[in-house]
Amino acid sequence: MRSQRFAAGVVVTAMVGAMTVAAQVARAPLVLEPLGSKGEAIFAALEGWGPDKSGGDTVILLGYYNRNKTQELTIPIGPDNRIEPGGPDYGQPTYFYPGRQHGVFAIKVPKDFGAQKLTWTLTANGQTTSVTFWLNPAYWVNFFKHPANGNEPPVIKFASDGATMTGPPVGFAQTLSGAVGQPIQLALWASDVPTKVTEGEDALAVRNRASAAARGNQDAVAIINGQVIGGAGSPSTAGALPRDAAPANAPDITVNWRKHRGADVAFAQPRIPLVTKKNATLFLEAATTATFSSPGEYVVRAQVNDTSGDGGGGDQCCWTTALVRVNVK
């Protein structure tokens, strides 16, 4: 009897030991596995692909999903943060904020890219994930106009009289320089084209039109540091529905400054809401400063959303993203 109990004890001990070893092996989480505050993986996310503004090249737009609720991670370009073949550096971020981050960077490929594939591999907290993406027809997106409701992304420029840009980031919009510990001015001007809804068309008609597509001026104001500058506004609702019922002074453009690459950086005001009041010809300035902790090359990201919100409310249109390079000495 004693020998039987001893044998059973050995089996239980072996099972527990095996379970302990298995729990220590890093693995990617299951799809529906609960999120954690830290220690989780990061997944690449394909937003979509489509023609650039000129129509001459194709743009693949990517973001990521950091499954950590609070943990922000830095992953340098290299074995743990690489895009292949041809990489490892395709302009992807090295700094990862918690949660889902949309439209973070873009890869420009020629029209004849065809069936070629790229793979973004990330290792975070000892867990490696790889996502392969290509010009999958199901992910084709018009980045510059929603085919169902006519919404268009905000238009931005980096000088009051500068060239305008809209949609995914392609290259650097601006290069700045400065010194460690000294605030560096970040400024852009933004405007938004009001969505044109057919006269007499209600919200239900817009939604019906969106489903069908899936199957086939007044003064403006700014909100700076919480203070409203100018008159009242009436921005649109999500999905670019009519704006008349929106509360006064509700922002219809939001500029978010984020770190893309580099060491520590502090933004004086990372989120700047603007109220354009549907005036597509008037650009409002969204200005802040960034202070950098050490010398080196940094990249910061300006993500500019209209009222459709992050990720275009799930439609992958319409927002504008720009990358700014900062050389700090």
Written description of the protein model:
The protein is mainly β. It has two domains: 42-139, Immunoglobulin-like, CATH 2.60.40; 155-198 and 217-328, Immunoglobulin-like (Sandwich). 11% of the residues lie in helices and 37% in strands. It has two helices and 19 strands. The chain has helices spanning 2-24, 203-215; strands spanning 42-51, 58-66, 73-74, 81-84, 95-96, 99-109, 118-124, 127-133, 155-157, 174-178, 184-191, 221-224, 227-229, 253-261, 265-267, 271-275, 284-292, 296-305, 319-328. The protein has a seven-stranded mixed sheet, with no helix packed on it. A four-stranded antiparallel sheet has the order 9-11-17-15, with no helix packed on it. Strands 1-2-6 form a three-stranded antiparallel sheet, with no helix packed on it. The longest helix is centred in the first third of the chain and has 23 residues, at 2-24. It is globular and about 50 Å long. 36% of the residues are buried. Residues 1-25 and 197-245 have low confidence and may be disordered.
The CATH superfamily of the largest domain turns out to be Immunoglobulins
Strand content: 35-45%
CATH architecture field of the largest domain: Sandwich
Low-confidence stretches: 1-25, 197-245
Number of DSSP strand runs? 19
| CATH C-level class of the largest domain | Mainly Beta
CATH topology of the largest domain, what is it called? Answer: Immunoglobulin-like
In which range does the helix fraction lie? 10-25%
General shape: globular
Radius of gyration in whole Å, from Cα? 23 Å
H/I helix tally: 2
Global mean pLDDT: 78
Can you summarize the main beta sheet? 7 strands, mixed
Structural class call reads: mainly beta
Query: What multimeric state do the chains show?
Result: single chain
Distance between the termini: 77 Å
Strands side by side in the biggest sheet: 10-19-18-14-16-12-13
Structural domains: how many: 2
Order of helices and strands: HEEEEEEEEEEEHEEEEEEEE
